[in-house]
């Protein structure tokens, strides 16, 4: 990792990914951690999944962030930090009419940077089965949908 400042209106190497309708802008990447700014429009979400090799954190900047943590519903508001230990199932949701802005980071980075490129390259209308398969190849495991 090079020392320096990543400006508020840009990411490293001017990268901006579209991940499941959300915008992710990487701010920092090293072997030990990766951080990205995320913008989640209303109605967007990431279904329950597990990071078996990473701890994940979300610092909420704007909006109300709904989460499912190990099967329990919770929420976070500006200034709150969401802690997602490795191997704990979690899903993230914007159930409001406002855009959510937050800072994510994971430790260690592992294959997440490559996963975001792969998901971005699948395009905005990606087949959910492709998203699940590509994610599993990059150490993120989606849980099967709950039965009614």
Polypeptide structure, described:
The chain contains two helices and eleven strands. The protein is mostly beta strands. Strands 1-2-3-10-5-8 form a six-stranded antiparallel β-sheet, covered by helices on one side. Strands 7-6-9-4-11 form a five-stranded antiparallel β-sheet, with helices on one face. The chain is globular and about 50 Å long. The termini are far apart.
List keywords for this structure.
single chain, 148 residues, mainly beta, Jelly Rolls, 6-stranded antiparallel beta sheet, 5-stranded antiparallel beta sheet, 2 helices, 41% strand, globular
Count of DSSP strands: 11
CATH class bucket: Mainly Beta
Name the overall outline. globular
Rg value = 15 Å
Short description:
Helices cover 14% and strands 41% of the residues. The protein is mainly β and 148 residues long. It has a six-stranded antiparallel sheet, with helices on one face.
Please render the helix and strand layout as text:
Blueprint: E1 17-19, E2 22-29, E3 34-40, E4 45-50, E5 55-62, E6 65-69, E7 72-76, E8 81-84, E9 90-93, E10 100-107, H1 112-122, H2 128-137, E11 141-142
Antiparallel strand pairs: 1-2, 2-3, 3-10, 4-9, 4-11, 5-8, 5-10, 6-7, 6-9
